[in-house]
């Protein structure tokens, strides 16, 4: 588990993704895991220009070269933003992904953004052999949380 507060702006993320980077690093440290052990990220993924670019940069910063093969999707594209419940519902989805090996897609993904060069799950459910996954939640006011689930 990781938790940070950057308090940069009420609705906009800090442009360099500092809080996002720190929360993912804190979760990895708390789980005693190397970034390469994560196979999937259920992104906060609001489909907004600011969030998606900052989150992509933060993932690339934390995961380095591993980010190129790390699967990423956001279920908000299917369920909308549930505000305070979003993190809980997204973590349930992440847990199910780890134990079923099925990754949900980011629906309505049309054109790749060069500023977000990650391996997105976009065309239906993908089946993978998954041992550990991360779920990101970045809230209003810069409140950030990150949870990791790992098989024993």
From TrEMBL:
GO molecular function: 3-oxoacyl-[acyl-carrier-protein] synthase activity
Annotated Gene Ontology cellular component terms: cytosol
Keywords: Transferase
Cited InterPro entries: Beta-ketoacyl_synthase, Ketoacyl_synth_C, PKS_Beta-ketoAc_synthase_dom, Thiolase-like
Nuclease found in the keyword field: no
Membrane-spanning ranges: none
Domain annotation Ketosynthase family 3 (KS3): ranges: 1-151
Keyword Electron transport (UniProt): no
Gene Ontology BP term (one): fatty acid biosynthetic process
PANTHER family hit by this protein: 3-OXOACYL-[ACYL-CARRIER-PROTEIN] SYNTHASE, MITOCHONDRIAL, POLYKETIDE SYNTHASE-RELATED
Name of the protein described by the UniProt record: Ketosynthase family 3 (KS3) domain-containing protein
Organism (species): marine sediment metagenome
Taxonomic path: unclassified sequences, metagenomes, ecological metagenomes
